Structure formats: structure tokens, C-alpha cells
From TrEMBL:
Family the entry assigns: Belongs to the IS21/IS1162 putative ATP-binding protein family.
Entry's Gene Ontology BP terms: DNA replication
GO molecular function: ATP binding
UniProt domain AAA+ ATPase: residue ranges: 102-230
Coiled-coil parts of chain: none
Protein name stated in the entry: Transposase
Species in which this protein is naturally found: Ferrimicrobium acidiphilum DSM 19497
Keyword tags: ATP-binding, Nucleotide-binding
SUPFAM superfamilies: P-loop containing nucleoside triphosphate hydrolases
Signal peptide: none
InterPro entries: AAA+_ATPase, DNAC/IstB-like, IstB, IstB_ATP-bd, P-loop_NTPase
Amino acid sequence: MGGKFRRNTQIGTLTDLGLKGMADAFREQLESVQYLELSFEERFAMLVDREAMDREARRLATRLRAAKLRHQATIEDLDFHTPRGLERSMIMGFSSSHWVDAHQNILVTGPTGIGKSYLGCALAYAGIRSGHSALYRRAPALFADLAIARGDGRYLKVLGSLSRAEILVIDDFGLTPLTGSEPSDLLEVLEDRSERKSTIVTSQLPVDSWHEALGDPTLSDAVLDRLLCNAHVIQMNGASMRTKKS
């Protein structure tokens, strides 16, 4: 009775100390005879490893919630069998975080329904899984939020939150030509990130049409200079995946 009470107290203490993974692993050790043959050092190492894995899982979950990705997508789940212009070796190479560490951008273009948004989210998830922070925004909503923020005095705060994300996904860029302050807003976003953070942009427009979509020639040059510098361009093609699924 006393031994069981002491063990429960120890588990409770571990939980109170925020060592939930270690507490769960300790409980499992107490409930299974298979651990009796192990030395103290072996059992303790298992507790430490479990706590480390539990903490990393919680950090990953926190980064995923903060990213607000549109799709729960991974590079490993991508369809490479359907002809879409995806080069397996190139895409799989992005599963490591080398492109984030090098502050490289990834620009994904292709027709509607081809899977650009899914790919963009899969690339972002690869970075998140490697320990980087990310944020997903559709371009129309991003510009709307910046316009509102300019009006209520939060403009610099919103720009700051965008610049802090190590990976920023701007989805559906160029659905409509940029107007008003949108080109300059985009330049402000990219200026804070250029050669310091990674940006993923998806668009139905080929990259050589972005200059026209941006409107103002001077701003267009500045925006494209920051996007294309150190960038990978993925040009998708083929039939809509939505049509295929239906």
C-alpha cells in the first residue's frame, strides 16, 4: 500500500513539474514486468528519451497550430504518379530544412486545381517538422488584413508578425491584379524577409506574368527582385486534380 502510494506520488510530482512524458513512461514501467530485467541506467535513459520526444511532439503541435496551414499535407503524401511537372528528387530534397536555413524562396505556379496550395502546405510542413515556424495566408486575405491594419494603427504590428515567421506561405497570388496599396504592402512584407526568411508563393500565373499583375513598374521590379533572389521555381502543369477526384 505504502509502495503504491509512493509511486503515485512520484508520478504526480513528475506531472506537476511538467515532465508528463517522463511520468507516462514511469507509469508504463511500473505496470509491466518486461522492464524488471533492465538496469536503473537503462530505465532512466528511457524516461529521459520519452520526455524529450514528448516535448518535441508538443512543440511541433504548437508550431502547426500557429501556422494555420490550409491543408494537412506532407511531402511524403504527394502524388508523383500523376503527370503534373513535379520532379520527385527535387521535391523530396525539400523535406530537409536546408532551403529554410539558406533563406531560399519557393515559387509554385500552375493551372487551377493542380495542387499548388497542397504542395505549398506540404513544403511548409517539412520546415515546421524540422523546427521552423511558419504562417499561411491567402493573398486576398493578407492584403485585406494589411489594409485594415493600416486604418486602425496595427500596420507595423502585422508586418512584424509576418516577418517573424521563418516560412511565410502566400497562396493564390495574382488571382486578380493588385490595386491601390497592395503592391507596396507586398514589398513591405518581402523587404523584411529578403535573404533572412523563406517565402513560398503559389499562383496560377507564370512567374513572367507577375510583373504585369503587380502593376506599378518600379514596385514590380523591387518585389520580383526580392522574390526571385535565391528562389526555386516549380512549374506545375496538367489536368485539374479536382476533376480527377470527381
